[in-house]
Amino acid sequence: MKSIPLPAIRRYPLYLRRLKAYRMGGTLWVSATMLAEDLGFSSILVRKDLALTGLEGRPKYGFSIDPLIGAIEESLGWNNRTDAILVGAGNLGSALLGYSGFAQYGLEISAVFDSDPAKIGTKVQGVPVFPMEKLTDFIGRTHIPMAVLTVPAESAQRTAEQLEDAGIRGIWNFAPAKLKLSDKVVVQRVDLASSFAELSSRLKKDQT
Amino acid sequence: MKSIPLPAIRRYPLYLRRLKAYRMGGTLWVSATMLAEDLGFSSILVRKDLALTGLEGRPKYGFSIDPLIGAIEESLGWNNRTDAILVGAGNLGSALLGYSGFAQYGLEISAVFDSDPAKIGTKVQGVPVFPMEKLTDFIGRTHIPMAVLTVPAESAQRTAEQLEDAGIRGIWNFAPAKLKLSDKVVVQRVDLASSFAELSSRLKKDQT
DNA sequence: ATTATATCGATATATAGGTATCGATATTGA
DNA sequence: TCAATATCGATACCTATATATCGATATAAT
Question: Taking CB atoms and an 8 Å cutoff, what residues of chain A touch B46?
Answer without folding.
Answer: none
